[in-house]
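Format is chain and fold; as here:
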Amino acid sequence: MPIPTPSRHVPVIGLTGGIGAGKSAVARCFGEHGVGWVDADDVAREIVMPGEPALAEIVSRHGPAILQADGQLDRRALRNRVFEDPVERRWLEQTTHPRIRQRLHDHLQRLRESGSPYCLLVSPLLIETDQRQIVDRILVVDVPEATQLARTATRDGVEHRQIEAIMAAQSSRDTRLAAADDVIDNSGDRQSLQTQVDRLDAYYRQLASSFSRIHQP
């Protein structure tokens, strides 16, 4: 399913990084500058809400035990099944990724119309999927792998074995850095992060201005 090409009047910055890198924290820092963003993880949750076709397909394949008592998807149970079975992981990706791409496009379209100087697409799988086709630059949030493990274990209460499986399903740190147009080192304190975001915000606003001049009628 081809991805509709977004308007080029408003740059879309693809913000990515491995699990535990702090992508959401970086997005919030940009948000303080009045920049809008859409988070692919949020969209991935949207498309498996009760009543969504993707959830019906998941239940048909895995049975009602994959649901919580309130009818919501038991994401931890699904994650356990998927990351221990490559066949199931591929099936889930084929079921959800096209729907995620379309929903991302819809959200980005609304952001472009909202007056945001540029938009962020926050996605852990930006490089691994064709989501990269709808961004103008790739911004990688980088931390050492040991930091990824420690932060994720503290945040999610997930065993290291599962975290390592998730990391293995994502691009390697070297691959992400090789694909990056811009990099934020998020291994320091909040002030260090804010300084880097301030610098990039100024640059992206200049980029947005050049886009506007190029596409003036």
Q: What stands out?
A: The longest strand covers residues 137-142.
